[in-house]
């Protein structure tokens, strides 16, 4: 059975989609593991980064969770992707009255779990139902957190959401770790935020080395490529490989 890892933070702009794509690629390259990416963000950033045009898609995660259609992954860069587009924004309202709404994504993934070693879910930047059903379906949570004071302060809401999911619907859910992102070592505020993240989060789960703020990550996404294919010597790849190794040890 695959590990299902929700890349989750209710804040936007922390690098969830970028982390999902690049971590998925690293996992796929290690031991030729089979990786499935799920785009649960109506903005479709992961879908776009991977090279698909969201507005042109007819089969997305929306049809699977709201209309019970089988998932239809696209194979890109050695990974499979279930894409999303703006139709998914309607699911937030439709799920309110849907039968067994909490388990819609979990049920959609069941037929595929034996086919993949890892399923990575790119969660939307909110605490709404799309994020909730992603956490219900997950075995683990990986939290990207920007090294800024405001982002650090927002973790209290994140922990409350995790606690609610564990209490009500998914008691086996575990935190796989925290990934400090967009780190600028020359910035004193970033240094203080990184220290606070490390001190406060380390008792909960592993805090990885920070991924530095780099234009190469954005440039690679613009070219619809994982960073390793865009710049094979970029220092961020060492951190991504470190995270991949840690995920391989999860149970």
Automatic annotation (TrEMBL):
The AAA domain covers 3-175
Which residues does UniProt call coiled coil? none
Q: Which InterPro entries match?
A: AAA_dom (IPR025669), DNA_Partitioning_ATPase (IPR050678), P-loop_NTPase (IPR027417)
Q: Name one Pfam family in it.
A: AAA_31
Family annotation (SUPFAM superfamilies) = P-loop containing nucleoside triphosphate hydrolases
> What is the protein name stated in its UniProt record?
ParA family protein
Please name the source species.
Trichocoleus desertorum GB2-A4
């Amino acid at each position: 059975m695959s590990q299902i890892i929700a890349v989750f933070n209710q804040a936007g702009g922390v690098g969830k989609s970028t982390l999902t794509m690049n971590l998925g690629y690293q996992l796929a390259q290690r031991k030729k593991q089979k990786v499935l990416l799920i785009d649960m963000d109506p903005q479709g950033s992961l879908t776009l980064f991977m090279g698909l045009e969201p507005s042109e898609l007819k089969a997305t995660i929306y049809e699977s969770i709201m209309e019970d259609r089988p998932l239809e992954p696209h194979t890109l860069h050695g990974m499979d992707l279930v894409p999303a587009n703006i139709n998914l924004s309607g699911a937030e309202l439709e799920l309110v009255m849907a039968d067994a709404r909490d388990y819609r994504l979990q049920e959609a993934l069941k037929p595929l779990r034996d086919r993949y070693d890892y399923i990575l879910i790119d969660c939307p930047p909110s605490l709404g139902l799309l994020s909730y059903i992603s956490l219900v379906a997950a075995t683990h949570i990986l939290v990207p957190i920007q090294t800024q004071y405001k982002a650090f302060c927002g973790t209290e809401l994140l922990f409350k959401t995790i606690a609610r999911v564990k209490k009500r619907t998914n008691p086996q859910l575990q935190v796989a770790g925290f990934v400090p992102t967009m780190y600028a070592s020359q910035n004193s505020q970033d240094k203080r935020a990184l220290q606070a993240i490390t001190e406060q989060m380390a008792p909960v789960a592993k805090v990885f080395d920070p991924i530095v703020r780099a234009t190469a990550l954005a440039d690679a996404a613009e070219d619809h490529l994982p960073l390793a294919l865009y710049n094979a010597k970029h220092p961020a790849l060492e951190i991504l490989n470190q995270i991949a190794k840690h995920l391989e040890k999860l149970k």
